What we know:
single chain, 142 residues, alpha/beta, Collagenase (Catalytic Domain), four-stranded mixed sheet, 5 helices, 43% helix
Amino acid sequence: MMFEISISVTVKSLPKWLNKNFITKILVRLPKKYFKKSPKIFSFVFIGDHKMKKFNYTYRGKNYSTDVLSFRYERIGEILICVPQAVRQAYIFNIPLKKEMARLIAHGILHTVGFDHERSEKEAKKMFTLQDKMAGWDSAPF
């Protein structure tokens, strides 16, 4: 399955490893049965706290920054990732930023194919298990 990936950055900089190749390695781990439902174009937008807080308030009514938001527009999946929040979470969880970014990218992709961890505990468990597999948490790191 072929996907188109675009990356937009509104923060000062991203690590060199955070590129289309890194994202593709996560995306291709999406189980084949979800390919039919998945967007064909993925837009990843890496933003700061201020913009994420505005998006989170506008679309979810939550007046704080969050780590990832996902939107689906027919064939396009847009995934917003808050870089400062990812850095904070990597520090709190005592893991490399690369591992946390992989988790957030996988999380966003799964939302675009219809998963919603807030719907039920059963769906949350299934989503988080897939997320960890896609992020490579269950195997050798990238």
